[in-house]
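Customer escalation, tier 2.

The customer says the design service returned an amino acid string that "doesn't look like it belongs to this structure." They asked us to rerun it and document both sides in this ticket. The original structure tokens are below, unchanged.
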């Protein structure tokens, strides 16, 4: 046996090689290109991509032409090469032909393959093409899926029981789902909500809270509130600085529970209120130590 030719079918659309005096050879197509072969005696045949074939004696010392007929889709192979091995007429040719080039054959197996990459590129594919799928052996469905339209699903796996942690949905009405019901979600740093926030459950605030804008209620709204005092509110009326900087919508007098003087009903003169002051009355002539809760 003898290797008489070796060429890359992607570098040229056609070419030729010389068969031996007996014209007996094996062609190994380790490429993604299907080749049409033309023999000197007028015969022709096809050498498929990823195939090995043998031919018997043709015309002695004749050239065999090869023309690229078509190519397989997908990424470029690691090797693109056709090898011609010739044999004498009496020399046996081992193995069975035609047969595939085993290195390019997809042999299925369930053995996990350890791989590492610094980046993933997925360019030019149709929308919603899957890019990443991760599924543990104990789960009935993937824990992580990512496609090229921005759809992302991340689930936690606990002994095969999956819990939604994050879901990003693209399309005409994109949305974000953060954690399933009952899952504790913690924001360790600051959080800014540029538009609206809807709280369907309970809202508990443990720290100091600053309200910079209007608090809208089901009926009406609260723009601000101030507690001022203490003032000694008398029967004749006491002018009190409420500290709102606007005319109050409501003023609630709060009597000092430690005050020994008896308190009677309070009165507020809404007709004379200004953005700074309000006149408050109490039926106790001696006056009652009082704080005001003013709201606007």
């Amino acid at each position: 046996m003898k290797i008489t030719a070796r060429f890359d079918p992607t570098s040229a659309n056609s070419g030729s090689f010389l068969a031996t005096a007996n014209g007996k050879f094996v062609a190994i197509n380790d490429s993604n290109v299907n080749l049409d072969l033309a023999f000197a005696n007028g015969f022709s045949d096809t050498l498929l991509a990823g195939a090995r074939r043998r031919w018997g004696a043709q015309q002695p010392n004749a050239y065999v032409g090869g023309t690229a007929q078509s190519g397989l889709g997908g990424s470029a192979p690691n090797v693109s090469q056709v090898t011609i091995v010739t044999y004498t007429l009496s020399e046996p040719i081992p193995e069975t032909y035609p047969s595939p080039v085993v290195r390019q054959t997809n042999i299925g197996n369930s053995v996990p393959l350890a791989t590492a990459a610094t980046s993933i590129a997925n360019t030019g594919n149709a929308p919603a093409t899957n890019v990443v799928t991760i599924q543990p052996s104990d789960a009935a469905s993937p824990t992580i899926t990512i496609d090229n339209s921005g759809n992302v699903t991340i689930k936690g796996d606990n002994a095969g029981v999956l819990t939604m942690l994050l879901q990003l949905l693209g399309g005409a009405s994109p949305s974000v789902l953060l954690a399933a019901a009952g899952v504790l979600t913690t924001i360790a740093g600051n959080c800014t909500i540029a538009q609206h926030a809807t709280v369907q459950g309970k809202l508990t605030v443990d720290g100091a809270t600053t309200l910079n804008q209007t608090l809208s209620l089901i009926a009406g709204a609260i723009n601000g509130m101030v507690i001022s005092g203490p003032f000694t509110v008398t029967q004749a009326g006491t002018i009190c600085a409420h500290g709102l900087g606007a005319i109050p919508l409501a003023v609630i007098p709060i009597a000092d529970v430690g005050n020994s003087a008896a308190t009677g009903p309070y009165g507020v003169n809404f007709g004379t209120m200004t953005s700074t002051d309000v006149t408050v009355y109490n039926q106790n002539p001696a006056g009652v130590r009082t704080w005001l809760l003013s709201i606007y």
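Tier 2 assessment: The sequence is consistent with the input. The chain has three domains: 2-104, 130-178, 222-295. DSSP finds no helices and 22 strands in the chain. Sent an explanation to the customer and offered a walkthrough call.
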